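Need the bound structure for adenosine monophosphate, inputs here:
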Amino acid sequence: MAALRDRSAWLQGGNALCLQPPPEAWRTWRLVLLGPPGVGKGTQAHLLSSALGACPLSTGDIFRAAHSYESPPGTAMGEARARIDRGELVPDDVVLGLIRDRRKCLRCRGGFMLDGFPRTMPQAISLDAMLAADRVELDAVLNYEIPVEQLEERVSGRLICRRCHAVYHARNHPPRQSGVCDRCGETLEQRKDDEPEAVRTRLHAYLATTEAVAAHYSRRGLVISIRATGNPSEILASTLVALSHRGFASQR
Ligand code: AMP
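Answer from helper R.:
Posting the output first, comments after.
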């Protein structure tokens, strides 16, 4: 597995800078990844990052990183955490505040793979406005699709590294050593919001909001639908083929 790109600017926001700036690539990718919880967007964002060179930028990772830096109840992050644990969406103003604070990541010469943002129409409209103001264009919106029955199995086996947020799956993408992150050696854990009740709430939130976001980008001809069945390498291969069919060469 390739080394995880330094994402300090994204995870910490504000004036934080990445210690390891992205390398020059002959092509800069700017993608949005959509799909229901458990479909494997996070895994694909990391695999695509290795294949194409752009940073995987997950809003969920910002919340998880903030949690590990401590976010007491009563603070915006503490309140967000309570919603996340229940599987509910964080309010748009909180999410958009985080994105504005990290706007330089959207202008980064390394490009981006947005994972988990935008999730609602107000978020999509704000992202469009930020990108237009910076004269940045999206290449494509990858919409990962899977039969609902398979989601539960995907989510129930999912494990995440509490330090670097790498994502594994007990059966489909196991770590080399059980319970230990291949990248950084930290202990792996199950996400609290991967428990069945929270997963049902998240799926409901996805169906209620994100499908409109997919339709919004579909009207602009940006959506590429990808069947997310099979193992992560197979899904990555389908993604790269789909991008090349759209006239995008996928070599770095
Ligand atoms: P994820 O890792 O993308 O599944 O995100 C984990 C949780 O963080 C979600 O279930 C939401 O509670 C919250 N979250 C992440 N991104 C967003 C977003 N764009 N809008 C609202 N809530 C979000």
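Comments: The CA atoms of residues 100 and 219 lie 25 Å apart. The pocket of adenosine monophosphate is lined by residues 37, 58-60, 63, 83-84, 87-90, 95, 116-117, 119, 123, 193, 202 (CB under 6 Å).
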